[in-house]
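Fresh eyes needed here. Kindly weigh in on this sequence plus structure tokens:
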Amino acid sequence: MYKTFCARPGAVSTTFEQCREIIRLVDLVSNGMPQIVYLVGWQYEGHDTGYPALDRVNEALGGRERSVRLAEEARRHNAVLSYHDHSELVGDEG
């Protein structure tokens, strides 16, 4: 599991295309070990923008189309994308 910081307001750190290359390289050097890639700053204008809405993918990173392609490519490299969105997991307390 590793975090990829994509963007914050006014600055792009890692585009979806660059994420794809990171996933490919980790797959290569790890001999196919499973990956969980935690994407931060994928929405609106980057990290912590647009919250609580999660309906817009950051266009500066490649937009929705590139995001979908990244998820498809990730599967081919034994990787699952996880999206930072401020949600909290709520367990069954009863």
